[in-house]
Amino acid sequence: RRNGIIKKAREISILCEAQVSVVIFSSSGKMSEYCSPSTTLPKILERYQQNSGEKLWDAKHESLYAEIDRVKKENDNMQIELRHLKGEDLNSLYPKELIPIEEALQIGLTSVREKQMEIWKMHKKNEKLLEEENKQLT
């Protein structure tokens, strides 16, 4: 029956040059859908909302969209900051804006040097242990 309904929706779409969308949920929760090739489900729902005057998206959904927009803006700002830390797009910055970037890079450089020194000391320690073990073996 489900396939029959989707087949009829396809036929109506073609024969009547109509924009058709069908969404079916079975009793087990499985979803089946069909949407005319010339449109999408969100476009159909938007048209329905405009023509019927009913609001499909409640305040919860709108707050989720606002949260998504906030996260997107935050992501964009972080990408700009990352480009600045990589030394890109610095011409648009004022000298006062360069100071925190320089400090962050200095802190990062110090951390990298400390890690390098730690690895070098561990390497030297292992080297000495291997030399002692080699002496004992010979």
UniProtKB/TrEMBL annotation:
TM spans (from-to): none
One CC-aspect GO term: nucleus
PANTHER family in UniProt: SERUM RESPONSE FACTOR HOMOLOG (PTHR48019)
Designated name of the protein: GLOBOSA-like MADS box transcription factor
Every K-box domain range: 61-138
Coiled coil: 61-88
Keyword Repeat among record annotations: no
GN (gene name): GLO2
Compartment annotation: Nucleus
Domain called MADS-box: residue spans: 1-38
GO molecular function annotation: DNA binding; DNA-binding transcription factor activity; protein dimerization activity
Chief location of this protein within or outside the cell: nucleus
